[in-house]
Design a protein that fits this description.
This protein is an all-alpha fold and 688 residues long. Helix content is 62%, strand content 0%. The chain is built from 39 helices and no strands. α18 packs parallel to α21, α24 runs parallel beside α28 and α28 runs parallel beside α31. The radius of gyration is 32 Å and the shape is globular. The N terminus and C terminus are likely disordered.
Length: 688
Amino acid sequence: MGEDGKRKTRRGKRGGDAKKQKDIEASTETVLPASLTAPSTEYTAPPMDSGDSLFYFDTGSKDENTMNVDKEDKISPASYGLVNPDLQSYLKNCETMLDDPKFESIEDRIIFVNNVYEEMKGFELQLTTDHEGSRILEKLFRISSEYQIRRFFSLMREDTIRLVIHRFSSHTIQTLLLLSAVALERGVHGETSDLAAGAEIEGEDEVRTKMPTFEELLLELVNTLTPQWAFLMANEYASHILRVLLLVLAGNPIEDQSNPKNSIKSKRSAKYVEDRNGEPINHPSLSIQRKIPDSLTDALDQLLKTTDSSINDLVARGFTTSRVGSPVLQQMLVLQSKKGTLEQPGSLLDKCLLNLVSDPTENARRDSALKLMIDDIVGSHFLQKVMELASPKLLQTLFERYFCGRLSVLSMHPISNFVVQSLLSNAKNERQLKTMIAEIQPSVGTLLFKQRPGVVRALLDSCIRLRAGSVEIMNALYSGLGISALDERKELINLLAFLMPYKEFVNADYDQLPFRIQGSLIIQLVLQLPGDGHEPIMNSFFAQAPDRMYSWCKDPSGSRIIEAIISSEHIPLATKRQVLDQYSNKYADLAVNKYGSHIVDACWKVSDMPYKEKIMIELIQREMLVQDSPFGRIVMRNCRVEQYKRRADEWRERERSLQKGKRMFKDIFDSSSTPNKRSDKKSKKSKK
């Protein structure tokens, strides 16, 4: 056969496959509403694999009140075809302006935004499912008016479920939800969009179409998503939207700027946005508790009630170990806890814990499942949240059934040790705390020296919170560090700072010992223990050579310890004065050091007027040295050295007024807390 024949054969074979594929597509074609039909070339979206499900949905159940996923009627992500190349090119050119939106006037910004919306009119849904288009839309929303955001939000109502599970449009909806939360907060305070009212008019001769309010849009979104809630929890794109929606409905903080771990976005998503000149929505209202309309509160109550009763036991247990569904499940438990419905028999938590709440009797199947959950990389996160939310009764049941007698072993496990930390840090009363300390005491040394000091820190947190167990936890530390005699306790601060047993420390070269961050954190917690709990650390501090403690001030971890000593509210002022005296004539040298400058600031805050002038004179005498250092200049500014040099009397008067204000506020706080303490004592006597 010649070359032409070969080509014909190949071409015919491919043509046959193409014809067969075309017939299959024609038989499974989905008819979209006319408003959603894309005017461009037909396009089949790439497969949106969400990973293997970690649990089994009972598709054979016919119970209408049970949420399940029917494998024969899968919901596919939205697809509206390819974006017009001319529109795509136009939006990419606009993106440069959106990355750095510096307009000469508000009118220029209004004109620019209106023109962009006019150009993409009729292609909005198509752009949400496009890789580049969805990203540009998110940037556009940040400078859009509230009317424009509501209009875009309302366009997505016709195909909400398929948009929510789409890889790209899900991010667009998440941004719209965040902006809705900001708008609701503005509405509560009687404010509106930061753009002028004229910015919301689509054209000069057009009449603005009445759009649903943000409240109405959110209510409709809740009604649409509720019947498919379990399915959406299992979807890797929709689950993020559910988390944001729950926080918006509850008015809870969404983005905690002070703690990136609490961010609603993953590290991968945040890095993607940063690499493409995107900025998160850092509006102040997203990091505080917000006021919301009563209708949204009622909608949230109904949502939690419906999902609580409709998600069956098998699905609920599956979500506890699902990377995708577990964060949503935890958020739902938090909201139920605030509403007082967390531990009701048959509740969502009861289903997740295999009916432990309603029937706490021994159950071999349940015990086996929960023990496996403790060691599971995802299930452990779920149990950490349960420990945080559990009542004293439920926590005691969990402790006695699954942790008592196993704390030492579980504490050394790379995964379950975090569950143990959550258990210890959430002890509900003094009796629970002391029981836990007694069990963990024999293994404190192993925990400190085998990279598990977080367990000890968790116990210290509970001691501080409950104001109990100080003696027991200190005895546990002495035992773990190998301190047996009273004179050996003088090295306590060194043993904790370097996390070394006493015998090894005695034979070690002190100058070669590295500070341990975890040890520094433990010392800082010990200094916060109630009553005289700080005295063992302070006695050990004063037993050291002053030059040795001075060297700590210039170390990243050591300086934190010294600063904690000076700033502690539990240490008397007379004791702090002894610490300050050790650094006399050394404040200038400390001021020019990166870490020592923080020590000078801490000393300044706790000093009285005569001692502040003593520090001031020392800084002025070595002013040239201090001014040459960037850290020294900050210290000079904080101490207001220039004002002291020009008008010392005014400087003294200002410092006196500041000290008077501090004392006044301290007296107010002390007087407000005294009645509570007295009432606590009376209640204890009455119980006795």
